[in-house]
Design a protein that fits this description.
181 residues; alpha/beta; Arc Repressor Mutant, subunit A; Glutaredoxin; 5-stranded mixed beta sheet; 7 helices; 5 strands; 12% strand; binds FE2/S2 (inorganic) cluster
């Protein structure tokens, strides 16, 4: 575990009491800070809360929001549930994998994106659906994927107003047509 991550974990742990009820909130904070749950961090959580390490792992592997492997800065979920699949979800997924350049494990070399296929995001009427972090994109066409991801890429210095990248949408947003005006 890199020293920089370790340096972030210790102050974070100090913010919580040593009660077992804090297990999930602590893991959420570590996940948000490091984009995954490093093994050493899980050991420290177990020590702090005085719970078996196996219990910590059980929680860490039960919830999809946690990852034991490093994740990209942005989590891209492409729905392959029935409604999305019949409306081209697979093509959207393949285009997303190409555009982000993710490896077999689903994460891009620049750690900007992690792409995963999911089963039903709960809004089948908007199929095909894709979610990036907390923003849900409805009626996504594979030809729109590149533009849709542009706002999540690192910004280059803009040389003109026209070249400026659109801002990342606010949290828990629904965007129709894979377009964000
Ligand atoms: S099948 Fe994709 S949102 Fe339900």
């Amino acid at each position: 575990m890199p020293q920089s991550e370790l340096g972030q974990i210790e102050p974070l742990l100090q913010e919580f009491d040593n009660t077992r009820a804090n297990l999930i909130p602590i893991l959420q904070q570590i996940q948000a800070t490091c984009s995954y749950l490093p093994q050493e961090a899980l050991r420290r959580v177990a020590r702090k809360l005085q719970v078996p390490l196996s219990d910590v792992y059980q929680v860490a592997t039960f919830y999809r929001c946690f990852s034991l492997k490093p994740r990209g800065k942005h989590l891209v979920q492409v729905c392959l549930g029935t409604a999305c699949h019949v409306r081209g979800g697979q093509k959207v997924l393949e285009r997303t994998q190409v555009e982000t350049g993710v490896d077999a494990a689903g994460t891009s070399a620049d750690m900007q994106f992690t792409v995963e296929a999911v089963r039903c995001l709960g809004c089948c009427g908007l199929a095909p659906v894709m979610r990036v972090d907390k923003t849900t994109f409805a009626h996504v066409e594979q030809t729109k994927v590149r533009g849709l991801l542009t706002r999540y890429r690192p910004r280059k210095p803009a040389t003109s107003e026209a070249e400026k990248t659109p801002a990342v949408p606010a949290e828990s947003t629904l965007v129709h047509g894979g377009d964000h005006a």
